[in-house]
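Course assignment 3, question 2. Fill in each field.
Student: A.L.
Task: Predict the tertiary structure for the chain below.
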Amino acid sequence: MSADRRSSALLKHLISSSHQNKNVLFGRDDATSVAIISIDLPPVNALSPTVIALLSESLEAVFSDKSIVAVVITGRGGKFSGGADINAFRETNIDVEKVRRYLAAANGVLNSIENSPKPVVAAVDGFALGGGLELAMACHARVGTAASRYSLPELKLGIIPGFGGTQRLPRLVGTQLAVEMLLMSKSLGAEAARDAGLVDELVPTAAELLPAAIRRAAEMARLGASTWRRSLELSDNVDADSAKMIVEIASDRLARQAPKLVHPRCALNAVLAGITGGARAGLEAETAEFLVAIQHPNREALVHLFFAAKECAKVPGVTDRGSRARKLGKVGVVGGGLMGSGIATALLLRGAECWLKEVSQPLLDAAVRRVQDNVRRRRLPEDKAAAVLSRLHPTLTYEPFRQLDLVIEAVLEDLSLKQRVFRELEAACSPQCLLATNTSTIDIAKISSATGSKSRIVGLHFFSPAHVMPLLEIVRTPDLDPQAIVDSLALAKALGKTPVVVGNCFGFALNRVFMPYTQIASFLVQHGVDLYRIDK
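Answer field:
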């Protein structure tokens, strides 16, 4: 059988199978002769070994079929791809050869895309994370929605990108931004990704994504290979001398701030190897450094931490009941001190409208200045900082609170004062408004006992500075409505916090650990133990 007949038969098989429960679906736009390959592996369209094999099979068919002029790769369910299946990295004893084969297969597919005889366009909705972004970068162009996001977060798991990310990213966005994205697991929104050169075109909605990607792919096929961007061949954004300096500065900082972490240095080694030795040498170095990182204890610890954080959002008897979180878009904060202004900042930065209440104009003015300073330190573009601060509504009264979805009390740690505030909130807010206290130690049952609203008063204990620290303790009492916990978990997610649901006891979770910890340190000092020895 000829090659054309074999590929035609395979395409017919792929098309006829596309409505079955396969992880990679095949379609075709007859008007343009553009093939559409869709990854369909809920919940995040992970690039499992099976998906990699199916992608290889599909690509082989479309590259061989003369009737197809171009390819669009996309993801189903509003997501492009969340990258490699990280469950494969949970094992204590990693099968190195199995990982090596997985990397080789994935890199083989991505390299075949980049070197393909037909243009390949990535159509990105939702997120392109880790291996998902690496897949998109191997394509010759990227079209994204206004809501799309892009990142290489592998270092959070103690590993590094293994599908060519350390090589393609610097060539697309430059070494400086690439190093920042790698070491900080920095995520780029759609506009930032376009401005950096990572994305070629943006469309407003998901409905416009596939048509735009198909048009671009067909146009690239018509214009010829000179219009395709093969990432590994790009050189405008990389310079060996500047790359050495950037990597040296980053290495020095790592030596000071994280001397025991191995995987960030592995990532830097791979980046530098590719820029100084060429893409092929860089890909080989990336695989070698990946295998070093995955065998280090850092990986096991960080993967455990990642999955433990995900488990924190699962509360038996609460999150498994099918309850939907209510929208908490309008939030009040009572008390504009260090904690209150930090909580207000956290809310504003994540898009909420925030009413900040104080008891006097001087205190309110000081609270607003603190919020402004917090936002200023984020070094946002002027228009974005202005947009954030436009959502801040200072007030001296409870009059606006009738319209709010949530109010967080952040006044001084005084039981009688907090009880008075909650009596006032009960009268000022609607019965549906969720009421929260930011107390760090006071019994929440005692606070709520002064009201008739025990079922909707929850503890939301932020840590200072509230707009920076990632932990949020959600404190429940026996009288609390489970819906309040569901809403609080959704708020934590919206704020980018790691939630921990705890019982109502002195110190809750962290302070119950931290207080004895510091007491023991003080005890050792009192008994003459050297301070530096205690610190170590």
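Instructor remarks: The radius of gyration is 27 Å. The first strand starts at residue 24 and ends at 29.
Grade: pending
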